[in-house]
Prior knowledge:
The protein contains 6 helices and no strands. The chain has about 150 residues and is an all-alpha fold.
Amino acid sequence: xxxxxxxxxxxxxxxxxxxxxxxxxxxxxxxxxxxxxxxxxxxxxxxxxxxxxxxxxxxxxxxxxxxxxxxxxxxxxxxxxxxxxxxxxxxxxxxxxxxxxxxxxxxxxxxxxxxxxxxxxxxxxxxxxxxxxxxxxxxxxxxxxxxxxxx
Length: 151
């Protein structure tokens, strides 16, 4: 078995930046592929068009802001230290774990992808995907609020 050295926080931030760039490239490839193979915009409802644009372009904007934020952290050691302390805060970790943790975070990412894809291809599937996405979002937010205020 290979022994891995623990990464420093700076190395973790650099990895996050690389992963964010990779995600941006994947999103742009997805946009081109779905534009070529994708659905007929005449069949899309106004809601499907709005939601898919909001999710897709919101994802691009969010990823870009995370890249900028992480680059600022690398330039300013004080900000880097503050960010490390906030990530290691036990209360924040507890709330994240109790509100679904990484499993629910990954589920939300997959549901966002499925919702955007079905908005372009199939309206009944889009309605189902959007409903499941909203239920999952409300469940995560509800659990987070419950454990942050009542526990």
